[in-house]
Amino acid sequence: MNKDESKAVSEILHELSNTSHVQVRSSTELAAQVSEAAEDEDEKRIDDGRGPLRRRTDYRAVRAAPRSLTLTPWQVIHAIGLGAASARQGAGRGLAEHWGSLRYSQALEANQGDYLGLSSEGRDLLRFYKATQSGEIGTGFASLLAEHVVRSRYPDHSVSVIPADVALKAGWALRSTSGTGSRPEPLQRRPHFFVEAWQPDQPSKVLLVSSKGTHSSVHQVHKQLSTAGAHVESVHIGPYGTVPYLLIGTEIPTKESLALHVLEAPGTTVLHPSGETGQADLNLALDQGNRMADVVRHAERGETTLPGYQVLPESFTWFNIVLARTEAATLTAFTGGGRPTAQYLTKEQGQRHFQHDVHANTARLRDAEHHIHGIDFVGTDHIYRLNGTRVEAFSGLEKSLYMHLHHGRVNEYRREVHGLRGQWPDRSASGKWNAVSIRADGTVMAIGLREE
Fold first, then answer.
1. Domain boundaries, the chain
2. Mind listing the pLDDT tens digit for each residue in 31-72?
3. Half-sphere exposure of residue 54, counting CA atoms within 13 Å on the CB side?
């Protein structure tokens, strides 16, 4: 390694902590364009003999939508990694997928106006497969925007972004168990996240998020958002068609800055416990559910049963527990996985993959402790080479919060982390760490040059 190479990597890591802006676009015109794209798609489907796609179309412009998000590339990578650690648990590679977010260390940079876009490295689609890149980057931005929108509406609540597939697996089989034949189309399309606004010992508020991303033109964004309406149509919490949602499309042009396009169906769905059950005990382990994948839609001529996933009011307490424990699994997977994660998952959610501390690329898990911004964190280190230079990345959770989750104390974790709202430092570098991101859930992701 020579000085020029070391300097180049130092600059890359420094740029990860630079604050940039991302445009947010939401308007009645966008809603009309998405509706037009849905009509065009349904016409083609009818011509093909498939019939129109079942989707929700009650979206509109997001009220009081921000004009832009201000963040660092490292915060986006943190969000991508956190989501991947949980969303792909079923393959037994949660931590490996999480570290896969580091492929984007050189993919994003600010232009002259400090708006975020693809770097020359990010435009090299021979190295970063196009569909994977747009999907993963889009998911990261969508989770950050959804969190921002919900937090601004419920400032006295904590906000959690929870991978929908992992949560739904606690109650439903998401794939055919026979291996023959395909499942009905609504069961194949699902939202990407549940966003939960919560306070300790209080019923949660919940909404759905469907995320899309594209390197193509804004017209492709309109098509993707129209299809996203079918993803949120598959899940209903309470009566049919009443749960609010966000549709978010990330436009990732080759030369211009990124833009987030967002629509919403406003409303509030609160997981009030039924009369027969009290407030949810989040420390209670869940048994694997085997619920029917159908939804009841009421109409003038009576009820109709449709394929889909529905949580009725008598199951709200159960679903509150599902959301909280799925988040706990996400956080512990982010710090290193293993048995601390397995305790929060049902069989279908991938529990068996975490029964043993085995990981192909990281020899020791949850053995790293670092003092960052005056806070003790516990987690896992990952050493790799960036352009030939040894780099150290660390993902972890604040130590006392980690101990709560390590010992199955979800109630205690939520009480403590809620009390810490607004107290986390927002500085983007610390000591040996060139880039640092600390989220309101107590997780940290840091990166710096590794001393030879």
1. 22-338
2. 999 999 999 999 999 999 999 999 999 999 999 999 999 999
3. 17
